[in-house]
Every structure is written in structure tokens, then in C-alpha cells.
Design brief:
With about 100 residues, this protein is mainly alpha-helical. The termini are far apart.
């Protein structure tokens, strides 16, 4: 039973990792600097948690990653200043609130 639960946690962690990577790719599409920075940050966070063994700690780390996806998809908007118009332009997507 312990092995099955560990495999399930690993599967959920990998799914959360992929979801974080997709969310940052969608959010920062075309912004090489932010893509690189957000990738490095996500990798650092997942590597920091890769050796967790306590089930509660593992669950907390996975839940945190899932929450990050929700925030990136629904609450973060990237804007760029357009000097010609003097306004900020955004690239809205269907999930933004």
C-alpha cells in the first residue's frame, strides 16, 4: 500500500510540474527573459522538494504547485509598455478573471 501511495504522489507531483511549466509558457509566451527566469524558479522549487518523504510534506508541496498554476492562469497578467501610444498592452487569455 505504501508503494502504491508513493507512486501516486510521484505521478501527481509530475503532473503538477508539467502544469506549472505549461502555465508559465502560456503566460510569458514571447518573453524570453521571463520564460527563462520562471523556468529556473520552478525547477529550483521542485528540486528543493524532491527528497521529501513525509506524506504531509509531499501533499503540501504538490498542493502548493497546483495553487501556483491557478494563480498563474487566473490572476497574473503580463503588460508591456507601448512607447508609441504611451499605454500598456496586455495579451488577455480565456482563463484570466
Amino acid at each position: 500500500w505504501k508503494c502504491a501511495k508513493k507512486a501516486m504522489s510521484r505521478s501527481r507531483a509530475l503532473a503538477a510540474f508539467r502544469a506549472v511549466m505549461r502555465a508559465r509558457e502560456n503566460l510569458f509566451k514571447g518573453d524570453v527573459e521571463m520564460l527563462a527566469s520562471s523556468r529556473a524558479r520552478a525547477l529550483d522549487e521542485f528540486r528543493k522538494n524532491k527528497d521529501l518523504t513525509d506524506p504531509d510534506d509531499v501533499e503540501h508541496a504538490i498542493k502548493t504547485a497546483e495553487d501556483v498554476v491557478v494563480v498563474l492562469e487566473h490572476n497574473v497578467l503580463q503588460a508591456k509598455f507601448d512607447e508609441s501610444s504611451g499605454r500598456y498592452k496586455t495579451r488577455l487569455h480565456e482563463k484570466i478573471l
